[in-house]
Amino acid sequence: MAKRISLREFQQNLSMRLGSAQRGENSRALLGVASGQGEDSLWLFDLADSGEVAPLTTLTPAPLTKHWFAGLVNIRGALYSVVDFSALRGGEATPLNAEARLLLIGTRHGINSALLVNRTLGLFAPDTLTLTDASSQKIPTADAAWRGKRYIDSAGTKWTRLRIPALLADPAFLDVAETATKNSGVSA
Questions:
Q1: 76 close to 107: Cβ distance less than 8 angstroms
Q2: Most Cβ neighbours (<10 Å): which of 99, 137, 150, 161?
């Protein structure tokens, strides 16, 4: 049976948690996801920024968009743009199967955007991860603004933290339109 607490204790606990979230203090858990293949495939998302995880539903393709723009999806009456996180980083397209998930990352920031990932891997406490040596990290310059620090868990698995606000502010992420080609068939 669950421990009974008074209404006052509940309100104090809730008040402390809300205050912590408003001050931007670290959340107590990070969401681990797999996106793509290889050493760069495991990512951590701060729960305070990552929002909701949704199962993959029917994607509506959008013409004349970059290859990493997976399309649009309707979730509970709201339209979300969907970016294939693996393809965005230069990897292969994420398989559209039962394990694939949509991370609704932009709702808290006023942008209805979702990342398509291979699968979710669970929650991790930040104190169970060890920060890797920053000098040994090879970070591509194209995504350095949103690519966070690298961590190692107790099993020796390497993780990369995604800085969601930086990703949502990246002009390359926001520009999904494919540039016109010579053979576009449009005449002036």
A1: no
A2: 150
